[in-house]
Write a structure and sequence with these properties.
Number of helices: 11
Shape: elongated
Mean pLDDT: 96
Largest sheet: 7 strands, mixed
Helix content: 25-40%
Structural class: alpha+beta
Oligomer: single chain
Number of strands: 20
């Protein structure tokens, strides 16, 4: 194959497709090498298949990594406004929902994937599927890609291979081998936006409960993170968006052998004193003729009653009005700080994204070009950047893809 492409992009995910489109719009001859049988598989699963593709709220607070400020130059070049305009021009009519979330009006993630592929086709971007790359070599001022299908050559290379989350979509960490051979360091990679596994046996009793609440994550007794929303309790642990938001910290704590625990608050709108007053009213003033478990009806999901009472050392059959101030104090405490010892996560296969990746100190944040290898660029989840739930990881894919694609074919 004697064709020398202006840019070859490794990975046809969200960031890779965006990079290809931006480079091609500047006139570049672009090839994408994809090891799966189709492009954009991970896009299809975002937002529960509805694709929450950006969020109007942006800033360092919504991104994680060794250096969260790394995202700012890219967001300034291609932020929410530019993202909405880009997709609207491709046919995606943005529909705003709660908390600034944006979805396609079609309610289908497939729509986002399809318009990206249509634009690639219009711009004559070539996508080669089922390509197994053996190695990528820096050759003179360009790159050669040695694959099972032959050798491809280009002037620049953009690595957009994703992280290690959701292997079935193609994000399996396979790009890390090429990255390390170029001399780049990778920060520790762990599952993020993932369910957490708990140690307590009572989890089986409360599995299936969904309740508004707050979760605080502790590492070695120090509070590291917290979030609020719908908590989901499972046989093996805890889930729901609030848990996802703090899960990256749990993953790192476990990786480094630390003790990790979570405290669940099922009455997040009340202070501890207000909760104690509430318990005294329910068990005292309103507890006439009721047993302890009956005094909790209407306050918590029914499956939660016996567990909270057991943790507070109150017999379920004990007359409500006979409960002591100390017992009700313990019940208030358990209602607002039920301890779950975290022993693991559901792993990369169940994670929405992975945390960690290419050390951003070795990458120019304004261009996404390697500081070590001229002509080598990065985009998306392969970098040590991960966002919280709410469209942030896709916004990072669009922003970093835009910057790398434009920079890799800089004719200005």
């Amino acid at each position: 194959m004697n064709i020398i492409y202006d840019s070859i992009i490794v990975g046809a995910g969200a960031s890779g497709l965006m990079a290809a489109i931006q480079a091609a719009r500047k006139g570049a001859h672009v090839l994408i090498l994809e090891h799966m049988d189709r492009a954009g598989k991970k896009i299809l699963s975002t937002g529960n298949g509805k694709c929450n593709f950006t969020n109007e709220k942006q800033g360092i607070a919504y991104y994680n990594g060794k250096n969260p400020a790394f995202v700012l130059p890219a967001l300034r070049q291609f932020g929410v406004t530019e993202t909405l305009q880009f997709f609207e021009e491709l046919g995606i009519y943005p529909k705003r929902k709660r908390d600034g979330y944006y979805y396609p009006a079609s309610g289908q993630a497939a729509s986002v994937r399809e318009v990206l592929l249509l634009e690639c086709k219009r711009l004559h971007v070539r996508i080669a599927y089922n390509v197994g790359i053996r190695e990528i070599i820096r050759e003179g001022e360009g790159f050669s890609f040695h694959t099972k299908q032959g050798v491809f050559r280009s002037k620049t290379c953009i690595i957009a291979t994703g992280g290690k989350a959701a292997k079935k979509t193609g994000s399996d960490g396979s790009g890390n081998l090429y990255i390390e051979k170029f001399g780049h360091k990778l920060t520790d990679i762990v599952p993020a936006l993932v369910q957490l596994k708990g140690k307590q046996s009572f989890l089986k009793e409360i599995a299936g409960i969904r309740a508004e609440g707050n979760v605080k994550l502790y590492i070695e007794k120090e509070k590291i993170a917290e979030d609020r929303g719908e908590l989901q309790l499972t046989e093996s642990g805890i889930s729901g968006i609030p848990v996802f938001q703090v899960s990256r910290h749990a993953s790192y704590g476990l990786l480094y052998g630390k003790k990790v625990s979570a405290a669940l608050n099922f009455l997040p709108d009340l202070t501890r004193e207000e909760t104690q007053d509430l318990m005294r009213k329910r068990f005292g003033d309103y507890g006439k003729g009721k047993k302890s478990n009956q005094a909790l009806i209407g306050l918590f999901p029914e499956k939660l009653h016996p567990v909270l009472l057991t943790l507070a050392q109150i017999p379920s059959e004990k007359p409500a009005q006979e409960c002591t101030k100390e017992e009700l104090g313990r019940l208030a405490a358990q209602s607002q700080a039920m301890r779950i010892d975290i022993v693991g996560t559901k792993g990369f296969d169940h994670a929405q994204v992975s945390a960690g990746g290419v050390d951003t100190s070795e990458v120019n944040p304004t261009t996404m070009e390697s500081r070590l290898v001229p002509g080598l660029y990065f985009a998306g989840e392969v970098l040590d950047v991960d966002g919280i739930c709410g469209g942030y990881n896709l916004q990072w894919a669009w922003s970093s893809g835009y910057v790398s694609g434009r920079s890799a074919y800089d004719t200005d």
